[in-house]
Automatic annotation (TrEMBL):
Membrane disposition: Multi-pass membrane protein
Major location category of this protein: membrane
Reported function: Converts cobyric acid to cobinamide by the addition of aminopropanol on the F carboxylic group.
Name of the molecule in the record: Cobalamin biosynthesis protein CobD
Cited Pfam families: CobD_Cbib (PF03186)
GO cellular component labels: plasma membrane
Keywords of the record: Cell membrane, Cobalamin biosynthesis, Membrane, Transmembrane, Transmembrane helix
Organism: Pseudaminobacter salicylatoxidans
Pathway as given in its UniProt record: Cofactor biosynthesis; adenosylcobalamin biosynthesis
The organism's taxonomic lineage, starting at the top: Bacteria, Pseudomonadati, Pseudomonadota, Alphaproteobacteria, Hyphomicrobiales
Record carries keyword Chloroplast: no
HAMAP family, alphabetized: CobD_CbiB
Localization in the cell: Cell membrane
Keyword Plastid appears in the UniProt entry: no
Length: 321
């Protein structure tokens, strides 16, 4: 049942996305979770506390911000599932945890902006999806940033929530989304969140382990089907470089994407004025272009459809067993 839920949620999000009218009317689950995280950050993360106290408060915050949305998801599941077409209703809710359409749209916007408005427009577009300083980026760096964001967010924003929907139903998907949102908001190594966000960052690393590996494999498989992509080099790059990334998870999709497209991604980057010296994924070209962004999108969509088909096949096998 949970695998079928993940499959249906993916189909709903592919077809409908999360309509802007709905965002204006009621907001979005990630925004609601973000409000809860901000509330806990304001009230539990006090500058007068020691690092140990902040770590303990961070653990308490993590339990609350995962537990509260998960409990709401459980209640929704119990209320909706017995209704006629109940699993469709739950899948509509579950689709809000996925970002296939919006991720592709935001990344495509970077390529379009570069083609139509040049570097300044490309910088503005890429600033919507990455945290690094856009003014520090030349055109190739803008393109690499968009492709890296596509790779990492394919894992965090699509494969991982689909995986946890398949494992734990709506409760699993919502719990994952809450943990991932917490990491994005308080999991950074800043003076304010170094201690308080420690639990959120480590928990997010843990729950993303299976999906990041699966994402890398999906991109390697997709490279077999996409003209011009190199599946053998994608696999070699994953084996050689993925474990060298500063993130225990981001290296898998970034290395697979870099190897498949013949690029060199990651490497030194500037975030908030601070240089982060990361290992390079891949040994291809650093001079990425808008056309490379579009090639990356083809690889993404192929990998995504392989995943959707995989969930559908597993659901069918389970139903027939």
């Amino acid at each position: 049942m949970f695998v079928l839920l993940a499959f249906l949620s993916l189909l709903v999000e592919l077809g409908l996305g999360y309509p802007d009218r709905l965002v204006r009317a009621i907001g979005h689950p990630v925004v609601w979770i973000g409000h809860l995280i901000s509330f806990l950050d304001r009230h539990l993360n006090r500058a007068t506390h020691s690092d140990i106290q902040r770590r303990i408060s961070g653990v308490v915050a993590l339990v609350v911000l995962v537990g509260v949305p998960a409990t709401i998801a459980l209640i929704l599941s119990l209320l909706l599932s017995p209704l006629p077409f109940g699993i469709i209703l739950v899948a509509i809710v579950g689709s809000s945890l996925l970002a296939q359409r919006s991720l592709a749209s935001h990344v495509k916007a970077v390529a379009d902006a570069l083609d139509q408005g040049g570097l300044a427009a490309g910088r503005r577009a890429v600033s919507m999806i990455v945290g690094r300083d856009p003014d520090q980026l030349d055109e190739a760096a803008v393109c690499r940033a968009a492709i890296e964001s596509l790779s990492e967010n394919f894992s965090d924003g699509i494969v991982a929530p689909a995986f946890w929907l398949g494992v734990g139903g709506l409760v699993g998907g919502v719990a994952y989304k809450a943990a991932n949102t917490a990491d994005s908001m308080i999991g950074h190594r800043t003076p304010r969140h170094e201690a308080f966000g420690w639990a959120a960052a480590r928990f997010d690393d843990l729950v993303n382990l299976p999906a990041s590996r699966l994402t890398g494999l999906l991109l390697v498989a997709a490279a077999v089907l996409v003209p011009g992509a190199d599946p053998a080099n994608a696999w070699r790059t994953v084996r050689r470089d993925a474990g060298k990334h500063r993130s225990p998870n981001a290296g898998w999709p970034e290395a697979a994407m870099a190897g498949a497209l013949g690029l060199a991604l990651a490497g030194p980057r500037v975030y908030g004025g601070v240089l982060v010296d990361d290992h390079t994924m891949g040994n291809g070209r650093r001079e990425a272009t808008a056309e490379d962004i579009r090639r990356a999108l083809k690889l993404f969509w192929t990998a995504d459809l392989i995943m959707v088909a995989g969930f559908g096949l597993i659901a069918a096998v389970v139903a027939l067993a």
